[in-house]
Amino acid sequence: MSPSITSPRPSTPETQHQRLNSSPPPTNILLNHHTLLTTNPEAFKFQAAASLQLRLNPTIPNDSSLIPPPSDTNLIISPYNTPHHLLDLQTLNPASQLLAKALTLFHPIRLDYATAPYTESFNWDSVFGFLRKQAKSEGYTWGKRHENLFYVVVFRSTLTADADGEKLHVLDEMSLREAVAGGGLLKYWFGNVDGERRGLATCEFSTL
């Protein structure tokens, strides 16, 4: 089943505090609240579920009795749809905001992504096509190359037969939480290991 927008999950004291203490954000970074989306990591890995947060044509209902869906500026940038793993778009410059939103479309386009050439394994054409379209829509003009530097990190690994998957998962979540808190991370993606226990993970960073 394809991922879709659902009813919001109950808010936590943390999210309630964020809503009470934040000013209205610009509409270009207004997102569907992350609690409206699934928490299934597979949907974010292979079906670009995070793109469902994007409000490509945000409008104000003409009928004042209609309540708009919950919104936020915290973007899902990994297979983890949990508060500590979200990226607040308000902390980014316009170029990084645009790229972070475009990377919600990121997903593999071939089954052997763990070993295939990196640039041929993902839907980069779709990501950059969307990026160009959104930049034009928001009136953003890219500066000189040195003003918009982004970095890609690729991790390739082979798990041993006795690797503790549960511990690795916990360490992965903790590492991502630190990376988000440290700033600069725009996307973190990892796939599933293949029949020979080979895997791939990747990150996209901006300069701080």
TrEMBL record:
Region: Disordered, residue numbers: 1-26
Biased composition (Low complexity): 1-15
Protein name as catalogued: Uncharacterized protein
